[in-house]
Amino acid sequence: MDIGNHRFVSLKCSVCGFLYDVPLSCGDRLCPVCNRRRYGVLINRYQEFFKFLPPGACRFVTLTLKNDSDLAAMHAKLVECVHKLIEYGKKHWGWVGGVFAYQATNKGKGWHDHSHLIVQGGDYVPQEELSKVWFSITGDSFVVGIRWVLSPIDDLAYLLGYTLSVDGVLDCFREEYNKVFKGRRLLQSWGTWFNRMAAKEDVGEAEFVCPNCGVETWLCDDGHWISNFSQGFFTEGARPLIVSPGLSP
Asked: What domain range includes position 128?
């Protein structure tokens, strides 16, 4: 089955015949169908952890690099610099753990690659101090942001919304974007958060039951029977068609 440019597998409940369309992961990190699915999966997966974080315990940090025409080289630099800043924050600012993600946009004026972080521990770091440290690490970039996290779940949604946005890259740059970001983990945790996060991205979903009759066995449109099916993505060509979450296509 095709909907627009995105392919789906049609499933039918083995008992009542209820029809359910499951998206095939297309491998495009800028695909709106896949990214809506990724957003829902990640919000559901991590909100249990975030809802127990007290207001004011964390800061939301944004780190940017100067625009560049070479995304691969730029992103390699950003990854290295973000890790260096985290190590600096652990040593000098009392940071104990957190999570971070990357976002790159290009609307015709070069790549704007940056990182969003939610960090816990220590005192509030003034933006001027953060900017000076970031400049000393990057050698040429100083634009940063930092604020208190008043609602951890809202800021998780905010971070994921930016990370999974599909509007910031012109079509002519999609191939370059996918070459750099394909296979990369969407969220990365560190420090005390590393083992406390609810689950990692490659962990399977809960079984999906028919909303009409509660059965967990489905018939695929090619005749294959499926059981223990989760609402993740199918990997095209796999047999039997047992769902793979597909969060890092």
From this structure: 54-191
Looking at the domain assignment, is residue 136 inside a domain? yes
pLDDT digit string, tens, across residues 235-247 = 333 333 333 333 2
Is the dihedral angle over the CA atoms 153, 155, 156, 162 positive or is it negative? positive
Average pLDDT score over residue span 129-150:
97
Q: How many CB atoms lie within 10 A of CB 144?
A: 21
CATH number of the domain at 177, please: 3.30.70.60
CB 11 within 8 A of CB 22: yes
Q: Residue 31 falls within a domain, yes or no?
A: no
Do residues 88 and 181 touch, judged by C-beta distance below 8 A? no
Does 238 reside within a domain? no
Q: Enter the pTM of the model.
A: 0.78
Total domains, the chain: 1
Asked if residues 236 and 27 have their Cβ atoms less than 8 Å apart, the reply is: no
Stated as kind and residue range, the H or E segment containing 82 is: helix 71-88
Residue 125 amino acid letter: V
